[in-house]
């Protein structure tokens, strides 16, 4: 331990959700208010479609099947689980949602052709926060919705997917295990999103005893384009800054 390498964890036995900490990074009162004021909001179409697409994406990852015909069948079978939510939105059936979600499947299939492969192809490019280009491919899915507790850091969280990835840059090629987060909104630069993936990287590092120095944030739904992949190196200063400023008092 020295001035550059140190962390002070207050009450590590009280596990705080990484999502709560990340959300409070933008508003320190938000986490407390959400916990104490249990407001019920009506479902909106954007959030409902995002939730459904999120599940479709995870099922496709588990099956490692990105065939367009199969994806369209998956949309139909997944929608049957969300009928109540669709009725709440005022839909009289699944037709409108089916048309909307199926329109996203070609982009999903195209994304997989570029990024889900043994070695990174020329079009499988991600960017770090400084705009540096890195070639990447996802070679293996290790777990979905992995629930991780860390008494060391006083954090817990559900990780969308834990994947094995191959990265290629000027330093060469390396295989890494990284947390993979799927976000279905338009905002790819959200501080809370990036803080969340940084904390998930910390959780995996504690669980597996390895140096998980990167995380991967994938933006879907609006447009599945390569510029929406954010490759984020985890810096020690970032870790110290997030819990200190984000922990709700």
> Strand portion, in percent?
15-25%
**Segments where pLDDT lies below 50 for 5+ residues?**
217-231, 243-249
Tell me, briefly, the overall form: globular
How many structural domains are formed by the residues?
1
Average pLDDT level: 77
Order of helices and strands: EHHHHHHHEEEEHEEH
Which percent bin holds the helix content? 25-40%
Gyration radius over CA: 19 Å
Helical stretch tally: 9
Measured distance between first and last alpha carbons: 26 Å
Strand segment count:
7
Characterize the main sheet: 7 strands, mixed
Instruction: Give me the secondary-structure category.
Output: alpha/beta
Oligomer description: single chain
Could you characterize the architecture of this molecule?
Strands 1, 2, 3, 4, 5, 6 and 7 form a seven-stranded mixed beta sheet that branches. 33% of the residues are buried. This protein has one domain (1-249). The radius of gyration is 19 Å and the shape is globular. The chain has helices spanning 18-24, 30-36, 45-63, 68-79, 83-88, 95-102, 105-115, 191-208, 236-246, and strands at residues 16-17, 125-127, 133-150, 155-169, 172-183, 214-219, 229-233. A hairpin with a 5-residue loop joins strand 2 and strand 3. The protein starts with 15 loop residues before the first strand and ends with a helix. The protein is α/β, with parallel strands linked by helices and 249 residues long.
């Amino acid at each position: 331990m020295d001035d550059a390498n140190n962390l002070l964890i207050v009450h590590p036995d009280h596990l705080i959700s990484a999502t709560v900490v990340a959300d409070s990074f933008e508003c320190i009162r938000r986490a407390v208010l959400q916990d104490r004021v249990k407001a019920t909001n009506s479902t909106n179409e954007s959030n409902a479609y995002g939730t459904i697409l999120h599940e479709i994406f995870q099922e496709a990852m588990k099956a490692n099947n990105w065939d367009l015909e199969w994806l369209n069948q998956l949309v139909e079978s997944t929608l049957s689980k969300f009928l109540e939510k669709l009725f709440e939105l005022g839909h009289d059936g699944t037709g409108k949602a089916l048309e909307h979600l199926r329109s996203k499947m070609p982009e999903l299939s195209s994304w997989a052709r570029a990024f889900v492969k043994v070695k990174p192809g020329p079009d499988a490019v991600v960017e770090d926060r400084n705009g540096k280009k890195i070639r990447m491919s996802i070679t293996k899915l290790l777990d979905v919705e992995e629930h991780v507790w860390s008494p060391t850091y006083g954090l817990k969280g559900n990780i969308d997917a834990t994947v094995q990835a191959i990265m290629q840059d000027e330093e060469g090629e390396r295989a890494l295990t990284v947390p993979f987060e799927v976000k279905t909104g338009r905002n790819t630069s959200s501080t809370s999103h990036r803080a969340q993936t940084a904390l998930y990287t910390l959780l995996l590092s504690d669980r597996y005893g390895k140096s998980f120095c990167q995380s991967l944030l994938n933006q879907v739904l609006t447009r599945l384009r390569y510029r929406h992949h954010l490759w984020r190196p985890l810096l020690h200063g970032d870790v110290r800054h997030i819990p200190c400023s984000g922990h709700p008092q």
